[in-house]
Amino acid sequence: MSGNCNIILGIETSCDETSVAVLDNGTVNSNIISSQVVHKEYGGVVPELASRAHMKMIVPIMQEALAQADVSLEDVDAVAAVYGPGLVGALLVGLNFGKALAWARGIPFIGVNHMEGHIYSTFLEDEKPEYPFICLTVSGGHTDLLFIKEPLVYERLGRTRDDAAGEAFDKVAKMLGIGYPGGPVIDKLARDGNPGAISFPRSYAQAEHYDFSFSGLKTSVLYYLRDRDLLASDGKPVARSPKLNDICASFQEAIVDSLVEKTRRAVIDRDVKHVAVVGGVSANSRLREVFQLTASKTGVKVYFPRLEYCTDNAAMIAYAGWLRSQRGETSPASLTAIPNLNVA
To answer: Which fold has domain 131-304?
Structure first.
């Protein structure tokens, strides 16, 4: 395969968003995302329901993406689809659809690591990080701190040892009885709260390594609620706490402090001037605010993707696939879904 694949069709079905995008030489021409609302009543993603929704939506979403980009399948030079990490059933829908589409057209297929896609979500913008840079990928399933040496070359510096940051948001929101997904709701409530009202722990904040831990913070919130009779014996909230906004703000601040402090130290240790913060939690308004304040004091440039590119989307998958296509890379037809997969 030569590196002349210009129009890339990207497919993302790793969890509960069905997304298809069309990129032309790294520029987004369309990025259609269908979010599955069926999971809200269960307080989390139900894998079987996610897979069924992907199968139902993948064709109409692709047709919409092609129409918006004003291209046909005959114009597509290569197909890129996510193969992991994610929910295995959900991954298989998009992966097999992408492979079949590429095979039927006789064009290259490129499998893309979902977390690699997130890394390059900031590259979908006009302003892009300069190599080398530090990348914090923070989502519902992952919290990783990476040193990006050059295109497609990574070194993991740290990761969460238990819950991911986004997972902690969802679990605490469930304790508070405020809905799913928890991140956006806590972010909204925290704006009217005092982030210093409650002293929740910052695990590993001063440790020499770059790893994160959020399970202790989650447990601390649980004990806080239980000790004030804000939880029933079955763990369900018994009433809306009069300090709900303060709880949300204090919990959120503990997560933000941990993420910013570890990233700040990595920037100093690796002597870089550019930082990318990506993934679903990068949409958090307080995280963005504190990162920008910290960066402005140190002369570091921090990059966030627009909100559309923070969550799972096919544009970032297509971009990573385009980068690999420029190096002449393809994936074998035998490539299968890998639910638990590391980027580095």
So the answer is: Nucleotidyltransferase; domain 5 (3.30.420)
Which tens digit of pLDDT belongs to each residue from 28-69?
999 999 876 555 665 666 777 888 989 999 999 999 999 999
Predicted TM-score (pTM) of this structure: 0.92
Whether the ω angle into residue 339 lies within 30 degrees of 0, i.e. cis, is no
What's the confidence (pLDDT) of residue 204? 73
- Residue 177: what residue type? G
Q: What is the pLDDT of residues 69-87, one digit of tens each?
A: 999 999 999 999 999 999 9
C-alpha separations of 303 from 126, 202, 281, 330 in Å: 11, 24, 14, 29
Pairing of strands 17-24, 27-35: antiparallel
Q: Tell me the domain boundaries of the chain.
A: 7-120+310-326, 131-304
- Do domains 7-120+310-326 and 131-304 share one topology? The answer is yes
Residues 217 and 168: their CA atoms lie apart, in Å, by 8
CATH architecture of 7-120+310-326: 2-Layer Sandwich (3.30)
